[in-house]
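Worked problem 6 (solution included).
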Amino acid sequence: MPAIEVGRICVKTRGREAGKKCVIVDIMDDKFVLVTGPKNLNGVKRRRSNIKHLEPTEIKIEIKAGASDEEIIEKLREMNLLEAMKESVKIKLP
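Solution. The predicted structure is:
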């Protein structure tokens, strides 16, 4: 099971969105991925993120690379994960 893959739900560990959950939408290269919250769900904008600033969870949704925010929200609704995505996580940095 690869940790960084399209559809994997992660927690952002750095920046102003630290502690918020996001979904990997696309893999840009070996250091960056495209993530989204989606913004109207939990405030995480669609943007690139360094993989060192993400903590993958065991949850994965089935989406295609480059999926729209609407498609992601629909998959989250199907899996009853909308409320879980809105919750923030307390980050402990070393």
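Discussion: The chain has one domain: 8-85.
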